[in-house]
Specification:
183 residues, alpha+beta, Immunoglobulin-like, 5-stranded antiparallel sheet, 4-stranded mixed sheet, 9 strands, 30% strand, globular
Length: 183
Amino acid sequence: MIRLALWLLAGLILGGIVHLTSILLLPRTATQDAYSRLESSTPVNAITPLPPPSPDNAALPFMDPAFAVAICRYDLREAPLKLTTPVAQSYTSVTFYTRLGVAYYAINDRAAGRRVIELDLMTPEQRGNLREDEEVTAADRLIVEAPTPLGLVVLRALAPEPSAMPVARGILAAAQCRPSPQT
């Protein structure tokens, strides 16, 4: 009886290890992640609006049809990135993801407290090379440190009703995502 219990316990422990290992490794081995799917249709360091999602085809998973969505696929190996986007009257958000799809920073229009969300995206090394300017305070300049040099910035603007979707798309069309010289 004890021998059977030990075999069952060993089987449960081995099954748990295999299960956890596969769950943790699966996202890293996926070949059709969001970054890979958007790589062919989006330029680097530029804003690209995404088409509205349909039941058969959505560029990203879990897209809400009430939101206009735009993507900036970034590469920080050459220079930091300057991101600016006007905010919608209803709701606007900006979310940063690593190349592997891990969200590491998000801000919305209410947290920004301004009519324009403006920030600098850079690696920790680029941040270390940034010279301190006494005239510019932390409240004037929002700096986001990216854990990896490649990733995605997802901009979303809410259209509270279908007739407001062109306005939401127009707001995201005015957004800019461009390399900036390090100052």
